[in-house]
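Worked Example 4.2. Consider the chain below.
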Amino acid sequence: MAMKKTPPAANPDAYVAALGGWRRDVVESLRNAVRGAAALDEQIKWGHLVYFSTGPALLIRAEDERVLFGFWRGQRLQTIEPRLKAGGMYEMATLDLREGMTVRSATVRRLTKEAVALNQAVGDPTHDAKPKKKATKNRSTKLAASKSTPRSKKGGRAG
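Applying the procedure from the previous section yields the following structure tokens:
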């Protein structure tokens, strides 16, 4: 299902205030438990609530038919909440909450604390995904090296 394109909320309070019904109830409950669990930097990023601690740690995203509660490195948290579904980069995993579904506040707090602890121990998860530059010789050095290697009469390298 395609999400409706709406301008992002000015701040986290405005994000929650713009919601209605069961989605607002779920987001408020998640948000209260998250904020009570750890000192996090709460921002509107990518159009939804994102919580940072040494990089992004978790998100809350309200959509038309569901509320996603997601974690960078969430695949490492599946023993705490088995309903977390793996997907995407950064070891992401999300809990897909539909109308009538719940998650215990104690579970939300534990997931939040573990997500923060992972970022503190391992670092920003988005840095892990950036390609690492290999320590190789530059191209001109490689070409010079290949020209200086003797070849056999059949065209292969001697050796």
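The CA atoms of residues 149 and 157 lie 7 Å apart. The chain has one domain: 12-148. Compare this with Example 4.1 before moving on.
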